[in-house]
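ASSEMBLY PREDICTION REQUEST
Request ID: AP-0331
Submitted by: J.K., bench scientist
Number of chains: two
Total residues: 546
Priority: normal
Notes: Please return the full assembly, not individual chains.
Input sequences:
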Amino acid sequence: MNTNTAYVHGYSSQETRRLGDQADTLATLLHAGTAYPVGSRVLEVGCGVGAQTVHLVRNSPGARIVAVDRSEESLAQARAHLATQEPGAEVTWRTADLFHLPFPARSFDHVFACFVLEHLPAPGRALAALRRVLRPGGTLTVIEGDHGSVLFHPDSHRAHEVIGHQVRLQAAAGGNALLGRQLQPLLRGAGFGDVVIRPRTVYADRTRPSMVEGFTRKTFIAMVESVRDDALGAGLTTAADWDRGIADLRLTADGDGTFHYTFFKAVAVNPGP
Amino acid sequence: MNTNTAYVHGYSSQETRRLGDQADTLATLLHAGTAYPVGSRVLEVGCGVGAQTVHLVRNSPGARIVAVDRSEESLAQARAHLATQEPGAEVTWRTADLFHLPFPARSFDHVFACFVLEHLPAPGRALAALRRVLRPGGTLTVIEGDHGSVLFHPDSHRAHEVIGHQVRLQAAAGGNALLGRQLQPLLRGAGFGDVVIRPRTVYADRTRPSMVEGFTRKTFIAMVESVRDDALGAGLTTAADWDRGIADLRLTADGDGTFHYTFFKAVAVNPGP
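STATUS: Completed
Returned structure:
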C-alpha cells in the first residue's frame, strides 16, 4: 500500500477556486478579532494563493504586510488575486521557505499562519522559526482545522471512511489533518506565552444555504474529493466504495442534511529570548 | 450481550452534583440569548433536578415559569435546589410526563427543553406534544449535545471506546447521545417553522481551569464514568479496558491536554395549526 503521495492543497486551478470559496465563506468566522495597527509589520507565512491575504489586507488597512510562500506559482496567483480583489493594496511578496525565512530576528510585530502547520512534518520546529522573526511582545496567530470535529446528518460510516482516507494521505505526505486540538501544547512547546485558543465552529443546514454551498460542498467535500485519485492509487479503497462514501457525504448538504466542523484559532505572544 | 439497562442521567446524589456543576459551568454558553418577557408563560419540560431551571429564573425575572418532570424525586431536589440558589423565585412545579402534559392546548408562550430529547425513544413525537401546548407564534428552545463532536488531546482509541460504550448504553435505554446534529430535521418534521440551530462549542485547556474542572472532569468524564457498572454488566468491555480508557480520558484534563465538545441550541416557532 503506497500512501506516499505528494498531495498538498492549492496546486490546481480547481483547488485555487476552492480555497477562494473557503476563505470568502469563512472569512468572518476566522478573521474576527484579527486586525493589526497602522504601520505594524505583519508577516503572513504560507500565504498560498492569497485566500487569507485578501482578508488580512481588508481588516488591517495601513499595516505593512509581507506575504511569503515557498511556491512561486502560488505567489503569482496570490498577486493576481489581490490585484483583482483589493487593487490598491500594497503587499510585499516573497518566495521563501518557512524554515529559512530571509528576515533578521525580530523583524515583525505580528505573524499570521492559516492552514499551514497542518502540512508540515515538524510543526513545533516551524513555530520556533516563526518566533525567531517576531519581536518580543509580538503576537502569532495560527488557524487550523481538525477533521476529528466533523459531524453530520445523515450519519454514514462510508462517509467517515473517505474522510479517513484524506486524513491518512495527508499524514503520509507529512501533514496532520487532526492538528487543531494540539495547538495549545505545540505553541507552549515552542516557547510562546499567553496562548489562547478559541474554537470557531461552522454549522450548516438548509437555513444557511451559503454555508452549505460555500463550506459543506465547495470547501469540505471538494477537499475530500480532490484526493480521489491518490486514495485509489494508494490502494486505500475501491472506486465503488469511494463513490458511495462521497455520495453519502453529499447527502449532508441536501434537504434535511446538517454539517458541523470546528476550526481552532490560536493567539500567542513571543515572551522574548 | 444485554445492554437493556435502565440508565438515565440524574438518579443519584452524585449525578445531581454533576448536573449542577454542568449547568453552572455551561450556563453562560447555553443560556445566552434565552430571556423571556415579564409575564410570559414559560414551560420547562424535563427540568430534572433544576440544574437549568435556576438559570431560566435568573435570566427571565418576571416570567411565569412552570417546570415539569416525570420524577417526583427529581422535582423535590429541584425545589430544594431553587430554594437555596434563588430563594425568592416563584416556580410552579408539576409532576407530569412530557407525552401527557396536563395543560390545555396553547397554554404557553414559550417552551424550553434542555438535555431531554436525548433520553426519549420518540423525539419527534415528543416535539409534537410540546407544540400542542405552545401558542401559535410561541417559541420552543431545545438544547442537546452530540458525542460525535468529542475531540481531545492526547488522542486515544481506548478513550473513544469508553465514550462509545456510553453511547451504546444510552441507545439501548431508548435514547440517542448523537442527537444534536438531528435537531433541524426533527423540528421541521414536527411542524415547527423558522428553525435556527446554533452550535455552542466548549473548549477546555490549561488556560481555562474552570472549564477543565467543571466540564471535562466533572461533567463529561463523570458522565462516562457513571455507566461503568452498566457497561461491565452488559459485557461491553472488561474492567481493565474500561479503566485504561478512563485513564486516557483523564489525561485530556491534565497538563497539555485539550478537550472539545459541541452543544446544539435550537430555537423554533410554532406556526399554528
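REVIEWER COMMENTS: The longest helix of chain A spans residues 13-31.
SIGN-OFF: pending second reviewer
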